[in-house]
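MODEL INPUT / OUTPUT PAIR
PAIR INDEX: 1
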Amino acid sequence: MILPWHLYLMASLYILAGLNHFRNPGMYIKIIPPAFKNPKLINILSGAAEIILGIFLLLPFSSHFAAWGIIMLLIAVFPANLYMFQNKKAGFGLPRWILFVRLPLQIVLIYWAYQYTF
């Protein structure tokens, strides 16, 4: 079965982002709010989830379950995006408008994933 190109794009983005959690863990650990304990473990789990869900998006029998998993993951990592906006050090020196735009971007990403849930 040939999947639509945008599903391949989504899967690739999540797989690459997940791999980056292991390639550059400090970047992700820095944006985990201090209220969350064990940021190293959270980084590993979220990176692994992105890789696994990205792969499962490419498998027709599991793509709709993977899309729901991505939606849950995007909701789970929202506090990190909010923390980046609120904390100057976690924001990597990016302009505040970019950090602000990232917040509603989560809704766009959730909507994109939702397109594959059925």
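PAIR INDEX: 2
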Amino acid sequence: MRRAIQERNTKETELNMIVEIDGSGQALVDTGIGFFNHMLELFAFHSGFDLKVKARGDLEVDDHHTVEDLGILFGKCLKEALKDKRGIARYGSFRMPMDEALAIVDLDISGRPYLVFDAEFTREKVGEYSTEMTEEFFRAICDHSGITLHIHVPYGKNDHHKIEAVFKAFGRALKQAVRIEGDAIPSSKGVLE
């Protein structure tokens, strides 16, 4: 079973997360940020991961610490659950239309953290979620899981649609990449670190 449990407690946040890669897309999410809850639920549905998240953060300051720290925690869970990455497809790509917006996500579970984030937002917030935190969330995932991730939103007018398309496309691309295809480590080097 590819599953991980992580917690993170700082002066700014108290977080608990359970990630089950081979789940059924069920999510039980409470971050204190409604739009972010919705995005994590959509990610779970489209990835097929089961996701349980309980977060208490300093939202009276803003949403930065909660969102970034959950990215850190998710990255750690993903790395733990994949272990040595034996048998995985490794690569995933998905193009997700959301009404007038399009998001393109390509990723490599390479062991090398790198984020290319090419998306612009015109609104400061969607609900109580800061749009700038989208990039920070995915950067934290990359840094702590060791994946290379390219996110491109070539067009769109509605920031809700653009961000939603990104989370859905990330879920679909990750679902492809973690799929078991055999028993070998998918690298000519024999290791993914």
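PAIR 2 NOTE: The beta strands are 3-9, 13-20, 27-30, 50-57, 91-98, 101-108, 114-118, 125-126, 129-130, 148-155.
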